[in-house]
Amino acid sequence: MAYSLTWLAAVLKDAGLKVATVDGWENRGSGDVGEIRGVLCHHTAGPQQGNMPSLATILNGRPDLPGPLAQLGLGRDGTFYVIAAGRCNHAGAGNWRGTTKGNTHFIGIEAENTGKEDNFPWPAVQLDAYQRGVAAIFRHLKLEVDCCAGHREYALPSGRKTDPTLDMVAFRTGVSSFLADGLPAPVLIPAMEPEGPGGGPGRPTLRRNTTGEFVLYLQRILGVEQAGTFGPKTEAAVREFQRQHRMVPDGIVGPKTWAALDAQLSPAPVAAMGLG
Amino acid sequence: MLGSEILDVAIGVVFVFVIVSLICTAVREGLEGWLKTRATHLEQGIRHLLHDRDAQGLARHVFEHPLIFGLFPGRYDPQVKSGSWPMALTRGRNLPSYVPSRNFALALMDIAARGPDTDEVNSDSATEVISLEAVRANIRNLGNPAVQRVLLMAIDTAQGDFERAVSNVEAWYDSGMDRVSGWYKRSTQWILFAIGLFVAVALNVNTVAIADYLYQQKAAREALVAEAQSAAGDSNYLDKKYEDVRVNLQKLQLPIGWSNTTLISNGAGGTSQQSGWQWLEVLAGWLVTAFAATLGAPFWFDLLNKIMVIRSTVKPHEKSPEEGSEDRQIGKEQLPVPASTSTANKSPSAPVTEPVVATTQASASATAPRPKTVGLPDAIDGCDVDILNFTADEDLPAAEGGVA
Lengths: 276, 404
What we know:
The structure holds two protein chains of two kinds. By secondary structure, chain A is of the alpha/beta class. Chain A is built from ten helices and eight strands. In chain A, strand 5 and strand 6 form a beta hairpin. In chain A, helix 1 crosses helix 4 and helix 4 crosses helix 6. The radius of gyration of chain A is 20 Å and the shape is elongated. By secondary structure, chain B is mostly helical. About 18% of the residues of chain B have low confidence. In chain B, 60% of the residues lie in helices and 0% in strands. Chain B is elongated, with a radius of gyration of 30 Å. At the A-B interface, strand 1, helix 2, strand 3, helix 3 and helix 4 of A face loops of B.
């Protein structure tokens, strides 16, 4: 039996956000949630490596703590990982505007961040997605921006929690500007390059589960197994490439990534590809 | 025809029993105050009622709930292990010997609604307002399936009326405590007998001798009956203090006490020499007194009233026997029952049977799939925990969309 928050994925997708659902999320949760009164913002305090290294822990919990530990995870590239549609153990004891049963009444968003100096300021793409995601949820639930709290603001006794390492007042201001409807939707990655290198037809944007010549070409450049299908390993390699080139490590090969790949290679194979 | 002497002798003997029983009750109370056995019985009874024999879960939470915690000094420290039922002389600790059923019911509802811990969060003005919905929604706070089920049944049969739900829980508690009081009564019965025998011997209250004496001494008999009559009319007679009662006993001029054994021999008209058979008679008299004492003052007072009704020229229905039973409720119980009073047993018994009938329905709805199970522990959170198993990028699920 699916739980109440099955609208989460669609609402976030409609807001133009990058969304990845974790298999079985509709039926996941320790019971169902109650009436949703807001969103609680967390950070994972996970390791620095990877896009969402805490995902498995949020999903399954720990031996001493039953999962799921949050409905949503937010990767460093701004991807919302939709983990559960039911109740999650994310809030604990606390109080925000009269709500003390946070696990029952708040949606938890765990954003991947070490919570330390090495991860501050937060990546712009992640922070932008965070605020847009909260705004999308609030628009769906018709809630006011004050219903968004940082975990450290909610948790009691005071000082029990330090997450998130964000200025929550500024965060809420950001959310309210997205709620105001005045700001443009995020610009999505185009399906194809405007034009290929040397003025030819643009190359398609490559992402998980795409196939074809260009995927083989990409796999050759990155030095991963040339299976012809953009699988998880290829995606991980793309992310690593993007990290090395200080780009958003979203694992999607769009115009920017193509350009970076081109710059790294000698012009010859590119020309060959352009012909092919 | 039944001579009025016989009736008067009976009245006199019963009156003596009333007084002796009162003395025994006082001794028993003194002993109880020192041993606190009743408190231990009550605690074990509550543990049993809450299906928490080791007092590590719900029973502990209930005893530590502020509504109950204030009823006893010090901390709650369960020592008697499960399975070892307290004996008649088990030394109790500083636990309450009486827990009002309403306190118990409210504490249980509060634990269900707000969780067992008394901390900043649960004492905050912002906690959930206690309502049947809140209790129902957070029922798993109790962490005790059996009690959860009882509470759910109490809530469901209350049909939205909070007070009715509370009284349902109270009725359940009372019925459990009735059993505790019966169990306490059984386990302490022999103590009462021992006290009765002790008092009978110490004060030399020999029933046989007294009856003999009263039968022969008309003046003494009439004086005693007059005294009994005034006592029977006094509904607060059973609340008398030990000193008053003892003075009363001495005032009766009966052949009791070791100093006036001569009174026995003179009054009975026998010799002062006591043979072996006479000693046996004395022993039998003491035993009868002791057994009578175990029945308790309320019983004898009741009986005294009934005999008075028979004796009096007033027709029985004008002084209805039920009045005697009323006295029994007003007066001190022979065995002060822990928690619930016997008066409370009758009226709530109807709500008790009602939920029992409803059990099948409640269990049927409980087994039905219920997706909306809200109210698991809200005190836990997994935020900021150490990540044990990293999720590598290649194990991440596929995403849709993507921002340029």
